[in-house]
């Protein structure tokens, strides 16, 4: 028995040594890669010249124009017409330049309300409320299909719409009751979904204070509804037509919390985002371009609407990974 225990301990020790050795090798490899990257950056810093362009459109109100050319079967950007330092100009792009473009926007067309008023309905339903990131993508896709199909994502508002709300509390009653109900401490990063909610409400209680300048007696949290077009369980109208106070009333009623005392000490701001979940809409493999689009030379695209194999969109990590490539 003693020999078996000794052998078992020896085997465990050898396995641990192998794991530590592997970890050291990985750390050493990572450090070497960082050193190599540092040398590349430092060695080529004098060759790098970044030009920041405000792509908010031209003086005549037309969208930013990106001119592409096809040479020997390869697509490249040859010129950009935009506003630079407040003046309209055409920027010539050489084959040696690199143009990085952010495609689409999940916050395009967003509309905010107040504690007493719902978001403006006209804005939230306008399919032409597209910002510059969409305009650029639409322009590129019109010129060449290698840039994907933005229409698959920007026009399906009934499928991609989401309404969020942020709540500021001047009294700890809501937090105290919520912690007693869920047995979760603020800041765990989990969403609590109310399965019986017609609006499909989920809320998140972050660690307090959430803001560096947040007073000690103030609490904040946020939530969203996936089906804001539906009539509420208690507030008998669509979430889209509700003020912040009405949304808070619905939430408190679902949780069976008292209304008067909490509403009196809360401010709720609703925000409708017509394309918030657009990046998760069904698509085919040609709808999203690769980070370096097929058959292109001096172009890279980033954001939530580029295709990165084996990665999940929506998170900030996705945009970072696209830029990292």
TrEMBL record:
InterPro entries: FAD/NAD-bd_sf (IPR036188), Oleate_hydratase (IPR010354). It comes from the Eukaryota. GO terms for molecular function: FAD binding; oleate hydratase activity. One of its GO terms (biological process) is fatty acid metabolic process. This is Uncharacterized protein.
